[in-house]
Amino acid sequence: MEIIDGTIATVDVSKHPVASIPESDLSLADIERSRSRPLQWSVYGVLVLIALIAPYWLGRTFAVNRTAWLVEHLSLLNVRGVAFVSWTVTLLAITGLGLMIVDVRKWLWRTVFVIGLAAEQFIAGLCLLRLNFWYSTYVVYGKSAGLANAANLGIIAAGFGLAVFAVLWVGLLVLVRKDSPLNVLTRSWASFIMFFVIELIALGIVLGALLNMF
After folding, report:
1. Could you report the per-residue pLDDT of 72-120, keeping only the tens digit for each?
2. pTM reported for the whole predicted model
3. Reduced to 3 states, what is the DSSP secondary structure of residue 12?
4. How far apart are CA 191 and CA 118, in angstroms?
5. Contact indicator for 118, 51 with CB cutoff of 8 Å
6. Which residue among 27, 49, 111, 177 has its CA within the 20 to 30 Å range from the CA of 17?
7. Cα dihedral angle (65, 66, 68, 72), rounded to 10 degrees?
8. For residues 202 and 58, what is the distance between their CA atoms, to the nearest angstrom?
9. 35 CA to centre of own chain
């Protein structure tokens, strides 16, 4: 909005004869460097590392030292409900990470990612998540290992859904032409919808098929 000949008008290019932005010797790299916050990102990196290690250790400690208490208080839970909770927590962490990448300036998404990651790692430690977790859960929990296995499958389902989404999204970027109608799937809103659809399919597979094993 500018005042031209005494009237307010909307213009694409400024018509003022004098530049309104002062000259500067700063380069684009200097401007970006001034906007960066290395100390904040360093502290955040430490928080992410703590959220990745400490909750898993705490959950594993509970599983080994408080096994009887856990079996007594968690035996009434349903395996599908446990899988849904672990899937939801993992999805929260993944969503926070994705939104943090899209909107890097907001601390809300960074906080969501750290909280979700810490919760997911605590459940993973509590359920002894590893490549052959079914052996570990049976040794520790015995006949009650089904709940731990279900929680691990919920986490794995969310991670598998993310992997499938990443492959499809990269494939769309590489294979679909810019003038193709399918190119709309690479936009942010469409990508998020596709991501949640894939995650729901992964959860449905776990709830409908794999949990019948326990």
Report:
1. 888 778 888 899 999 999 999 999 998 888 887 788 899 999 999 999 9
2. 0.79
3. coil
4. 25
5. yes
6. 27
7. -170
8. 28
9. 25
CA distances to 79, 171, 188 from 86, rounded to whole Å, are 11, 29, 26
Nearest-CA neighbor of 159 among 119, 195, 126, 210?
A: 195
Q: What token pair was written down for 191?
A: 């990508």
Query: To the nearest 5 percent, what fractions of the chain are helix, strand and coil?
Result: 75, 5, 20
C-beta separation of 9 from 2 below 8 A: yes
For 2, phi then psi, to 5°, come to: -140, 155
Answer yes or no: are the C-beta atoms of 206 and 87 closer than 8 Å. Answer: yes
Quick check: 147 and 74 in contact, CB under 8 A?
Answer: yes
Closest C-alpha to 151, from 119, 112, 188: 119
The Cα 195–Cα 210 span in angstroms is 21
Task: Give 128's contacts (C-beta < 8 A, 6+ positions apart).
Answer: 60, 63, 136, 137, 140, 148, 152
**How many Å is the Cα radius of gyration of the chain?**
25
Q: What single-letter amino acid sits at 128? A: L
